[in-house]
Amino acid sequence: MDLGQFTRVYTGLRNHRSLTFSFLTAFVLTLAACASGPAGQGAKQEVAAENHQEKAAQDSAASTANPCPASSTIQMQAIMPTLFLTSGNQIGADCLAWQEFIYLNWRAQPGNPGNPDPTASAADFGLPTDLQPKVWESYESLEQVFAPQSSKMASKSSASQLLQLAYTSELANIHLLSIGQAGNGKWLTSQGGDLVYYDVRLNLDEAQFIQQNQLTTFAGQQACASNQQAQQKGVGGLNLPQGGNQDTDCSGNPQTYGLNLGTIELKSAWVQLPVDHSLDYRYLTTQANIVPPIGQPYTATVGLVGLHIVHKLQGGPQFVWATFEQIDNDPDNNNGNPQPPQLPPNPNQQPATGYQFYSASCTSQSDPFYQCKPNELPGTPCTTLAPPYQPSGCDPYNAPIQVTRIYAVDSTANSATGYAWTLMPAKSVFNYYRLIEVQWPNAPAPLPPGSVTPLTTGDITPNASTLITANTTAETYVQNTHTCMSCHMNAPIATPSSVALMRVQNGSMQRQVMLGKQTTSTYASDYSFIFAAGTNH
Question: Which residues does the annotated region (Disordered) include (predicted)?
């Protein structure tokens, strides 16, 4: 089987498509189609196969040693780490990131957004049949947190209607607008011709800090960052919460926010899945309202292909930066000779049918736009999805882009992933997700109030001189040049001139933020670009 040949039909961007989740039906039909022999024989074979699979999983668990230190364990429980202690070891950071991943992907408690469901068990974790929102999916979006108070009430009313629709269809709902990657604003298109869309979520601690300190406005951020009382006390200012009962308001007065877990920001990358739901068992899925750059909004089932988890906690004031991906995204570049990624053993995984963002059968004829060059940066977007393409020399949104991973995932991250996989249910979709890398401050230092850009990196480890950490679905085109902290150390508070609005064809507004080094120093926003991205008044 050619791992590079993706089986999805090239359909381009789909408009007005309403999909329903039918994994169970497809699964039953698949079993029926595969059955052969006398009546009952298929059932016996199925039981035997399940027994064999369970035994293989037990053998794998027995042979996969726990690599985690006592300070950073991985448990199949909804426990969020609140103290970062690595003793200078990468494996400690990697194990902590996996524990964060488990907590955040635990089923959310109905009616109590941001909290894990206490009735959910480890046996439920990631099952394709469990379609309730996960903890992080129940967080507020960037748009919700920064919405003016007048429109926030309307948006909450609208959100409740969407949640009701999600409840009746048994699917979580997200609203996807953004296709621009950080740093260059360019897009990524799968081998199926579908755009990748990005969604940003903030946890309760950060959302409350922003809203209670009036940081949704330009003026509020300026006042907080320059607060004189905070500078006299040496604490406060625009310092995002780190939990552990150690937080303050802008003036430096003690305050507790949210669940006292510290600030958590999540950026997720989603792509539309096949209409027959044949790949749903390999992805965290949700129902999404998609607003494409060309054409009308439509509803579809999308799968998670990448997830950034950025967490400020005790011991990690420069944040701990973790990134995860689905294992079928792309091959390793291997010095221009792409090869499958080296993955830890996992007997619960079914063979892949191909890569989401790479085709080994690509030719210059089949790819007239990028000539099969890996990680080729798109140019000017076309205004049409079919010939004649306009303007001259443009790149269509539905032309697949070849992606390879420049820096292969190291053995330390793989050891944490291998152990985490042994804890998961056999049919969990998270058997198909892996840790890419974690960056962490080796020399953490508190952020003084009134700080300006660029901020200290806290000796971020690993640093760009040894390894550039990149998610191929969110940082496709900067894998050789940018790592998390090289950009985020320059994150400023918002100013009216720091953002620009770009009107897309359907009339909605998308925010375009220039991410990178500032030409002049300005008040820092504690390593977070959400203030420049979300502020509009």
Answer: 45-67, 327-351
Give the CA dihedral 362, 367, 368, 369, nearest 10 degrees: -130
Which residue is associated with the tokens 């406060």?
236
CB of 151 closer than 8 Å to CB of 140: no
Condensed to tens digits (0 to 9), the pLDDT of residues 293-342 reads 898 888 899 999 999 999 999 999 999 999 999 999 999 999 999 999 99
Residue keyed to tokens 């074979």? 45
> Quick one: which of 396, 404, 401 has its CA closest to 377?
401
- CA-closest candidate to residue 250, choices 206, 214, 205, 204: 214
Helices (H), 388-441: 411-422
The DSSP line for 459-521 is SEES-TTT-----TTTSGGGTTT--HHHHHTTPBPP-TTSEEEEE-TTS-EEEEE--S--SS-
pTM, 2 dp = 0.83
Cβ atoms of 404 and 375 within 8 Å: the answer is yes
8-state DSSP, 122: G
Helix, strand, or coil (residue 415): helix
Q: Is 438 helix (H, G, I), strand (E, B) or coil?
A: strand
